[in-house]
Write a structure and sequence with these properties.
The complex is a heterodimer of chains A (334) and B (344).
Chain A (H helix, E strand, L loop, with lengths): L2 H25 L7 H8 L5 H36 L11 H15 L5 H26 E2 L3 E2 L1 H24 L3 H11 L8 H20 L1 H8 L2 H6 L4 H23 L5 H13 L3 H26 L7 H19 L3
Antiparallel strand pairs in A: 1-2
Helix pairs in contact in A: 1-13, 3-8, 3-9, 3-11, 3-12, 3-13, 4-5, 4-6, 4-11, 5-6, 5-8, 5-11, 8-11, 8-13, 12-13, 13-14
Chain B lengths: L2 H10 L2 H25 L7 H9 L6 H35 L11 H15 L5 H25 L6 H26 L2 H8 L8 H20 L1 H7 L3 H6 L4 H23 L5 H13 L3 H26 L7 H19 L5
Helix pairs in contact in B: 1-13, 2-4, 2-14, 3-4, 4-9, 4-12, 4-13, 4-14, 5-6, 5-7, 5-12, 6-7, 6-12, 9-12, 9-14, 10-14, 13-14
The chains are: A mainly alpha (334), B mainly alpha (344).
Protein name (chain B): Iron ABC transporter permease
Keywords (chain B): Cell membrane, Membrane, Transmembrane, Transmembrane helix, Transport
GO molecular function, one term (chain B): transmembrane transporter activity
Amino acid sequence: MNRAKRAAIVMAVIGVLILIALIFSLNSGQVRLSPSDVWQTLIGRGTAGEALILFDFRLPRIVISLLVGAGFAVSGCILQGTTRNALAEPGILGINAGAGLAVILYISFYPVQTVAPVYLLPAIALIGAGLTAAAIYLLAYQKQGDVSPSRLLIVGIAVAAGISAAMLVLTIRLDPAQYQFVSIWLAGSIWGSNWKFVTALLPWIVILIPAAFMKARVLNMFALGDLQATGLGTRVRKERIGLLAMAVGLAGACVAVGGGIAFVGLIGPHLARRLVGPQHQHALPASALIGALLLIVADTIARIALKSGEIPTGVVVAVIGAPYFLFLLARAKN
Amino acid sequence: MNSKLNGRSDKRTDPLAAMLIVLIGGFLLLLFGIAVSISVGAVKISLDTVWQALVHFDPGQNQHLVVKDLRLPRALAGAVTGASFSVAGAVMQGMTRNPLADSGLLGLNAGAGLVLALCLALAPGLPYSQVLALSFAGAALGAGLVYGISSMARGGMTPLRLTVAGAAVSSLLLALSEGVALLFRIGQDLAFWYAGGLAGTQWMQVRWALPCAVAGLAAAVWYAKPLTLMSMGDEVATGLGQKTGRVRAVCTLAVLVLAGTAVSLAGPVAFIGLIIPHVARILVGTDYRFVIPCSAMIGSLLMVYADIAGRMVRPPYETPIGALIAIIGVPVFLIMARTEKKVF
């Protein structure tokens, strides 16, 4: 079977799985709605209460999980491609932590319930993520050899540890109500079950994911190594910085709305490459779909596992993702 | 590992003399630090009163009670945890020949942290002796995961792989602790503890922790010579007749006890165990018979003084020690990651 056909089939299957997960997710939660109730409500024949649950609580949360999952996974796919490091991921690299720190700084000065900050949050997270990524890049930079992938990883881990310490200091000073909010958000909860958050997140996803798809060929070049890519006419340094900026933008926006969800950016691209091959034309969209599927499943599990909904999605993702990450690490060659 | 730095210091100074200078000078600084630590805080107590409280304790005097029941255990806990974290780091660095080994980075702290979160959530009244034992088990869990996974990798355990596995295991265990904390609504209590700090240390804790730490330190000193051989590589050690299996078992046990004790007292403070052994090696060379005592002394100093600094940054609030040490630790780590060319 040729690759393109195989990729199309794989993506169609994942699409169907997402649809199934979607229906399942719509049905589950504190108030159970049967599939027929859901359907009736969707076409406008449900009760006011069902409409409220579905349209105002469940649907936005589901849409956000899908967008955040896709965003993180594409971000991870870009990072892995540009650094040629299979373990690169916004969470491990400290970009999530940087975005988180910026958001916490903001929240500790302004209340979160007001309208305006909702739209500002992704932008603020983006600034935090961008500054952190720039710092990591500069710290890992060497005159000869540009940026070594393993150095990037090590520097990222150290920077993440430092930022986590700073965040801890900030969260301790918060009052209990703010603290509860911040801690749930930090642990990676899809807390923005609100259409405002969808509209705040959507532009970033809609612009950056297709932009990444258009760079698929460049990413393929990176896989050959910097020298080869330069030989084939790629402006390696410029393209790398552009792609890293995209990855950071996606991760920053996703952290702002979804919290610090790690491992999606790692697992999504890995599974994608295993299923559709390393060509980024296929791997990028497949990553997006797998990321979306992963997060909607994790979010549904989080909701079912505890009716009160207090297990954040990020914890579920970490419980699924970390063992997989470690499995990859154990199998990885130098 | 550090041949450049050590080669230089080996030639210039006699390591034994250097160690004696560090230990004697360090001891005097430590006594001074403990005295200052007892005298500063919400109530300022003059050094004179501190001395009176220690030699002529009078239970009728409030200040004497503050010294005896609050300040003294806290200062001692600082010294104990500093020494424990540092020696745990030194032993790990020697055993794994990984210059970036540290109980915080390799999952031991996170493992102990998870177990302590579970204790806080499920059995809040558990006696400290049992909490301590459980925190050893937690440290073992974290270490086991990290070492197990990175040694399964094809091509063996490299420092990079170990560090990356440590980061992944830590984030898994932290996520689980966060889940527990949110579920049982003990988040902010746990955050205080996670941030690292010695506020509220009680005598009862010190009484249990001190013997454990001393046992761990003694084991490390006792096995310092074989550890030095192991730090040169397993072939060298085996060639010189060392039973590497036994050395590794004893050293691992010592590390778990030391890290578990320190975490249960002060919270998961990272970077001490990473930096202090490097400082010690710069001062006394690569022989662990000198590195371990020096690490213990310098670690105690760092922790006691960091605890004082944490209280003085923004009184009456306390700045968590973990954060203060991270502020020093992250740049040092980065410099090391940049200069250790062989490793990366």
